[in-house]
Structure formats: C-alpha cells, structure tokens
Amino acid sequence: MQLATVIGQEKVKKSLTQLVDTARIPHAMLFLGPAGSGKLAMALALAQYILCEQKTNGESCGVCSHCQKASKLIHPDLHFSYPFVGSNLTSLEYITQWRSAILENPYMEVNQWLQFIGAENKQGNINKDECLRIIKQLSLKSFESDYKILILWLPEYLQKEGNRLLKLIEEPPVNTIFILVAEAQERILNTILSRCQIVKFNALPDELIISGLVKKATISEEQAAAAAHLANGNFNEALTLIKDTENDNATLFLEWMRKCYKGNGAELVPWAEQFAALGREKQKHFFQYGLHFIREFMVYILTGSQLVRLRPSELETAKNLSKVMTFSHLEPISQLFNECSYAVERNANTKILGLDASIQLHQIFKT
Predict the structure, then answer these.
(1) Which end of the chain is more exposed for a tag (fewer CB within 10 A), N or C?
(2) Model confidence band, residue 307 (pLDDT cutoffs 50, 70, 90)
(3) Do 17 and 155 reside in the same domain of the chain?
(4) Are residues 43 and 146 in the same domain?
C-alpha cells in the first residue's frame, strides 16, 4: 500500500521517508502506539516505499514490479511474522489467511486475526520454530531488491523466545530491516527494546477517522461522526462499530454488571459458564472492554454525558450505575479487571475465574 492511503500520522510519514531518502534507515524500528492508530498500515506502506524503484516526492510509484508485488504482500524480499496457534508450526502455515485479512483491513486487531484463523479458545503465540524460521530466512540473500524487510506484528507474543532473535536484530545481514509493530511496550523484552529505534504513533483524531470511514465504508458523515466519537481514536473500532450495531463485549458486560449488582447466584453461575465458553482471546478483550467502560464512566461522573464515548445502551447503564457506584468503587473494580485479564493470560480456570470475579464485583458494589 502507498503512504497516502495511511490515515493521518503525517509527522511520522515525513520522518520515515526522510530516513529512506537520505539512506539513514535504522536496521530495527519499533512502531509503538494504541490499537487502530495505523502502525501496521504504516509498516506496509514504508516497506513498499523502501522497495520501490521509482519513488518520488515521498511516495512509492505504485506501478513498478516491486510496488505491484509489495501491494499484494507477495514480494519475495518482504517477510512477515505474526501470532498464530498450533505447535510445531510457523506463521507460513497461515500466510494465505494473513494476506487476505491484511488486504481487507490493515487496521485489524489481534483478536480479529486469531478468530479469522479459527483460534477459538487458544491463545496466540510466536514460538521457537517461528524464531528459527526468521533467522534462516533472513540469512539468505535478497531475491529481487537491495533490501530484505521483516514486518513482525505484535512482538509482545514473542515472550522469552524473543531472545533467539537478539543477535540477528543487533547485527543483521547487510540491508536487512526489522519493523516491529507493537501496542504494549511493557510486554516486550527490554533486550529487544534496547536494540530498536522507537517510532511513536498517536491515536487518530475524530476528524481523520470520519474522513477515513466515509472513503472506506461509503457511509454518511453523520454515521461516521457517531462511530468516530465512540472509537476513541481507534480506526478499527470505528469500522467495527459501523458494521455491528451492538458490540458483543458491550452486551455481555452490561448484562454482567446488572447480575453482579443483584448478586443472585442462580444467575451468576450460568453467566460464568457462558463466559468460560468464549475462548481466552475474547475473555481478555472482555475485561479490556470493562476497563474502557469504567474509564468512560469516570468521565461521565465528572462531566456528564457530553464527552463520554459510550453508545446509548451503555450510557443508559452508566446513568443507572451512577446511582449506586461512586469514585471509591472505581479503583478496586479496575484492579479486579486487570487481575482477571492477567489470570486469563496465565491459563486460569475461566469458569472459576468468572464466578469469583462476579462475587468480588458484587461485594465491591455493596461496600
């Protein structure tokens, strides 16, 4: 894809193209920013710009053979690595699905990707075999271009296996470029962070999300503005909002809050069973949505409904909760959601976790 198709991030674009034009490309860059800010889209566009033979005025030509192949994600010197599921496999097992998913939506989030490949309740991972494949692949000579480029999406999923890549990242073969695309700096090995030049991305302003939605989804500006207001700078979330009138996480979460407030065990046990059947990636996103709701609930208490990024059903719940929930409740609830998200990552028994969290939340409400 071309840089012009990446929404916003103009300062980042200018900085990156200057590095390429002056032959000062860092051998390892870490694109770091919130979900839906366009990091992966920028990585794809930058890779095409680097490979392009006829780049002019800070843009790839889009017509040379390198651009044609890079735009279809089939350039032999453009490599990818990303989370997947399964043991004794590498990401190449999913390359067809990867190309299809990214060409459809380069702003997608990891949960969408894992569900796209049928992960169900399995957690994504970048395993030892994948790291060994990267080392082997990048040790080969380039095929058509002067450069070899690896785009590694979400190095947070490397965990300790990332140590296998340290020497390669620190001393790569000539004209080998790493572009790591990440969202959670605290989950990345410090040894990897120290070897990368960090490029920071900001959440997108509403006006850019609106214009992007109008172009991509062919909807009215009014519809786009409503989605942008709720998306909180996340273009992927805005796309999801215009496709789905009600988010599953929102519906399930609001139902759960009502049940926890009442504290009826006959309702909480079936809910915990329903929650356990979601799959771990969806469970983590459920608690992340919970943190989003609590943050917006705090804004509602402070400012009223004018600045709150909640949909009508969510806002109605916030109004009802404001009668029984105060600032003193928000810290323990946020801590509970963070602990639950961590426990899901650590393979906790999610049926017990869901029921225990429900009881704790009920106790917080009644404090």
Answers:
(1) C
(2) confident
(3) yes
(4) yes
Last residue of a domain, one of 168, 202, 236: 202
Q: What is the pLDDT of residues 108-138, one digit of tens each?
A: 999 889 989 988 778 889 999 999 999 999 9
Residue 117, SS3? coil
Query: What average pLDDT does the structure give for the chain?
Result: 90
Are 218 and 116 within one domain?
Answer: no
Dump pLDDT digits (tens) for 142-152. Answer: 999 999 999 99
Bridge partners (DSSP) listed for residue 59: 56
- β-strand 148-153 against 78-81: which pairing, if any? parallel
* Residues 6 or more apart in contact with residue 185 via CB below 8 angstroms: 32, 193
3-state secondary structure of 333: helix
- Helix-then-strand count for the chain, H and E: 17, 5
**What is the rounded CA–CA span in Å between residue 172 and residue 221?**
47
Q: Find how far residue 19's CA is from the centre of its chain.
A: 26
Please report, as a single letter, which amino acid is at residue 142: S
- Cα 134 to its chain centre, rounded Å, is 22
- Pair 26, 57 in one domain: yes
